[in-house]
Design goal:
Strand content: 15-25%
Helix content: 25-40%
Radius of gyration: 14 Å
Strand order of the largest sheet: 1-2-6
Oligomer: single chain
Number of strands: 6
Largest sheet: 3 strands, antiparallel
CATH superfamily: Mannose-Binding Protein A, subunit A
Amino acid sequence: MKKLLFLPLVLIAIFCFAQDANEIIGKPVKIGTLLVSQNDLPEAMNWDDAKEACRALGKGWRLPSKTELNILHKNRKKIGAYTDEDSLSSYWSSTVFKLNFAWGQWFSNGLQSEYFSKSTRYSVRAVRNF
């Protein structure tokens, strides 16, 4: 029951206190078969909240897979919204490693790891297929 109440509060907070979905998505960048939101979600968040926040952006928006996240890293200049400060961030992927861990990637050095604790807050960039 607590989870059912918490999730709507998180989503409301994301959209009331930050940017609306259109501002986050902005002008999506095409990379291969992906559309990448122009901006990160406004706040770092845990893995479960990150997945829900991406879905809340609209039809088809989601966390990138581990492979897709690496594509984003390799094309970070093309995406254009990443700053030097953003490049120090760690980003979530949708790829699960174990019950309490998922894959993520540091944009400062491109290193991927399966030991991103799902309860830790990391940056989020949404993608969808087109």
